[in-house]
Design a protein that fits this description.
Elements (H helix, E strand, L loop, with lengths): L3 H4 L12 H26 L2 H18 L2 H15 L7 H20 L13
């Protein structure tokens, strides 16, 4: 679900210095929700180009934070759209929404002292 090496490669993210990780993840959460809506709208309109662009945004932003599962799901949607296929339906939307929630929970566990050193989990 997460690759913490990617997340922690950004200075200040491991320590959540000045609340950096908290702010970045809140922005990502809001952006992911908006992108999932854009994916739905593009699929409903049959617009493969808009679907590809939205999927690319989600793939990139998720990958930059180490949310590799979501990045992989978005990559599949992007690749299909690049080939002109509209590969986003209600089931895929639900899968993405669930993955976002699970990923947010995993990010939240980084601040739970009972989980031990977050540097050990990848």
């Amino acid at each position: 679900m997460l690759d913490l090496r990617i997340l922690f490669s950004v200075p200040g993210m491991r320590e959540n210095r000045a609340g950096l990780r908290t702010r970045v993840l809140a922005t990502w959460r809001n952006e992911a929700a908006a992108i999932i809506d854009a994916l739905r709208d593009a699929a409903a309109a049959g617009d493969a180009h808009a679907l590809r662009l939205a999927a690319h945004r989600l793939k990139s932003s998720s990958g930059a934070l180490g949310a590799i599962y979501i990045s992989s799901l978005a990559s599949s949607i992007e690749n299909a759209a690049r080939d002109g296929r509209i590969a986003f339906d209600g089931q895929q939307r639900l899968r993405l929404e669930q993955a976002v929630q699970q990923t947010l929970a995993a990010f939240g566990a980084l601040d739970d002292p009972s989980c031990g050193d977050p540097g050990l989990r990848t």
